[in-house]
Amino acid sequence: MKNTLQATAVVLATTAGLLTVVAAPTASAATTCTSPVFKRQFFANTTFKGTPKKTDCDSTVSESWSGAPASGLPKDNFGVRWSVTRDFGSGGPFALAASGLDGIRVYLDGVRKVDLWKNTTKTVSKTVNVTVPKGKHTLRIDYVNWTGAAKVKFAYTPRTSAAVDKVKPLTPLDPLVSYDVSANTTKLSWTKNREMDLAGYRVYRRLRGSTSWTKTGTTTATSLTDAPPATGDLYYYEVRAYDKAGNESTGTADALVTSTVLQTPAGFTASATDTGAELSWTGVHAAVKYRVERTDFYGVVTKSWDLAYTVTLTDDSLTRGETVKYRVASVDGSGHVSPFTDLKAVTRPLAPPRELTATAGIGSATLQWTMKAEDTPYGDFRVYRSTTLPVDTSTAQWVTCTTSFTTLSDGSRRYSCGDFSAEEGTTYHYAVANVQWPSVSPLSNTATVTTLESDKPPAQVTGLTATATEYGIELDWDDNTEPDLLRYVVYRGTVLGEEGEEQVCSGGEWAWLNAGTSHYRDVRTPDGDHACYWVDAIDTAGNSSRWLGPVSAVAVDELDLTPSVATPEGAPLTLTADTPDSGGVRLGWSAVDSATGYQVYRWDPATKTYEKLAATTDRSYDDTTATRGTTHYYWVTALYADGTESAPGADRAILEP
To answer: Which residues constitute the domain of residue 129?
Structure first.
């Protein structure tokens, strides 16, 4: 059985510390139920006479009792009455559906619409279609149970088929319209309609002077915000209710608002970037998008963008050196366009020269830089020279420098030019700009160089050491970092003078080495010679470090790996030993007509003997077991049919590490 709200209650009150029972109100006390909740009354008879035994509120009529439904009622021969008065709004077609065991009657404004008044043992039901007029009306449902189980059910629902319901909803009441100038929005609100078949509300807008309405929104709530076109025009608004059958009410009284004028975006900036242009502006509240136009230098529009939900634009479609102009306007939801901003000119910068280097000369500097294939246009260059940093084009000297170029494999050009107006021994900072009139690129990187002096020799070599090895002499010395150093010249000679007295190193040039190295390996047979070395430094002007005075030399005793077994004379063949790039030692010899074969020997310093490596009928042999970093000595003899060997041909091979 459904729980219901009791109209009476027992209340405990406290008086002077004692609990007293406050009497429940009598059955005749008024019970108020808020519509559309039913007021329900229980009677101990089937004629609804006398005072109800109980009165409460019930949200629905749907009950099933197997005994007395309330205290003070019999289990048979009782009656229950439900009643409600409610506002039906515009009214319309409704279905009244009733069912029960025993009697049930339904009244609309006192007129009986359903009559099932009979003591039955099975459920009876009936649905009646009625038209409810607009406004407030009262429904009453009387139910009696004579004997047995008690069941009752009732519902009233609107009929929403478009073929049946032709009744329009009532016009929404209490419309309020306000306009927010700063946000360019119209706020509308109204009172909720009473129709049970209401589907929602539609808001309409029309331009003053026009008879055509535009639906701007639909809602099930009782308020809506609209943004009218920001044109400064006057607009009327009205609200209409519509029901589930599609019927629409008349509109509320026209409410007039004046829209703001769609604003031109403020704070418009346009700046050049290496790839094109960057644009930005301040958003306009009423705008749903922004229209950006690009014009040529003369103001002819060449490209246009419509941009939603953004206040920036990156234009990477400009060619280098191209000058264009930009402007932007706001666009509202109706397609209205605000006035454009003023045009702002932007020139995509030319590509600056890349990888600028400067090489010192005597009172001059040679400059080189690269221009990539994608850096076009280019062709004219402006060279700036300064004695201070950074290079400032307003104060730096503009140097006359005739350029030439070579084309690289990737299509780039490597330019060079010479500055022959510089002073000797002076530090200069250079930067180069790419010029395509009237545009000038940003400056290249800065290259710094100190020009050379024509009569200043390079510093003498220091830290020279000579180390004897099994493959020759290793020479090392300190680096010379002077920018005009061209080469080193290594000298080998003999030591003149007695030990303990002044000695000199006498000898000629041995090797030329480019600047940038400080090491030389003199590969030679380690046969125990006593030698000396010195190194001269030469600059690009031909100045020699030895002009500064005596040069320090270093003496060294070579190792002596000469075999202790002498090679016999009279060999019928000539042996050569080479060191191919593939490694090891390759031996080759001349033919001996009467030989049946050849025997290959290699000197073993540990056993101090020439040990056999291989016998062969070929005239060559590859010694793949020869170790690196030492000198190897070989014999090859001719073998004869009588078992004898010829005197050996001899040679040696030096294997560097």
So the answer is: 11-87+94-145
